[in-house]
Amino acid sequence: MKYLFALLFGLLTGAAIFCLGLAFNPFVSKPGLSPLSVSSAETILLSYPSYASESIAYSNGGESHAKPFPKKILELWEAPIRQTTARALVLHDARGQAAGFGIKISSLSERTRPLQGAALVDSVWYVNLPGRGALFIEQSENYWDYLRSVVFPAYRSSADTWKGTWLGTLTTGPGALGTARVFGSSGEFAGQEMLAIETMSVKTWRADGGPVAAQGQLLIELPPVAAEASDDSSVSDAKSVAN
Amino acid sequence: MFKTFLVGILLGLVAAAGVLYAIPLVNQQREVSHIFVAPNGENRESFRINIPDDRIMVGAAQGVSTLPVDLQWPVADVLAGVSAQMYKLRNEREVVIGVAARTVAIEQGKETIDWVLHLPARGSLFASMNLVAEEDGQRFGGVRAGTREFALTRGNITEGWVADDSGAEDAPDGRIELLAAYQSIAEQAE
Description:
Helix content of chain B: 10-25%
Oligomer: heterodimer
Number of strands of chain A: 12
Largest sheet of chain B: 10 strands, antiparallel
Structural class of chain A: alpha+beta
Number of strands of chain B: 10
Number of helices of chain A: 4
Strand content of chain A: 35-45%
Structural class of chain B: mainly beta
Order of helices and strands of chain B: HEEEEEEEEEEH
Radius of gyration of chain A: 20 Å
């Protein structure tokens, strides 16, 4: 009997060691510098608060740490959309002025592979910059480093809170260089294909509400034609963005 | 006994790795797709949105009622001409299969109407609609982009309103019907 207990205890210990090894796996590195950060092309930088209560509307399956907002919004409780999040937000330019409107719809990806450090989310953005045009963005995001550096430490903390500074690139594809694909729909972007990345910075994360002090950013690389046509000051040089 | 414990640890490591490798962590529920293939090779699929049951959000500048009632549409000049709606999206058999967003905005003096249809298990479709609706109220538009299952497809989408005439007590007011006709770019080129 004691051998059976020893075996069971060993099994549990082995599984726990494996999980710890997975969480602190040194072979899964933090994503490097995005190619858009060193691009010489002109870019649009759009930022938004990354927490539900600062969105215009935020809905999910209702079981996540981030609660739907406003309170009376319809939840996405049906099985095919339970792992989906939909949000509408105001997008701000580099000066902090409202520049447009965005809708982001994202779903957990079936390509998620913890063994490879891939906690993937498939997401699409609809971005409308009134007076300039509309864009559709397709991307895969990897939240592995975010989970490892922010979420797990928050759950380990006795206050269920993480405080610090985390900045990471979420976009990992579908572009070959880990960039998102952008399709221009109207205005000065009509018919253009572009690249983009989404980054997020977090300062506070709570287990009972998700990110509390966090900001997301969309960096869109303009094609030469659209860049020449644009004289808007929200368009900033990529180098200044990288700084 | 210590040797048994060590064997247990090894087995635990292997078992945990095996479980994570073999069992997918994320498994999106799939519903049967009801796709009709037209003689020209186009895939035709009908989506619907029951009004008011499937409305997640309706937002617009002042003067238009918002949904949910506690939604605060931001007061910003740049959003004065923008309105947005988000809905649950159903298939032909009334099963919720995704989320859809419809936006209306004024671009360089012209109104634009765009749809994003997101089906978690399949991918997304993005369509821009014509400004002028047909006499029968239908509005046509083109599929501008798609992701995953729809990545290499182009086609068109027709948007229409079908009022409910069932007379049932709990029936919706009606439904928005979206008929998507799409084809792979390779097939279109042939």
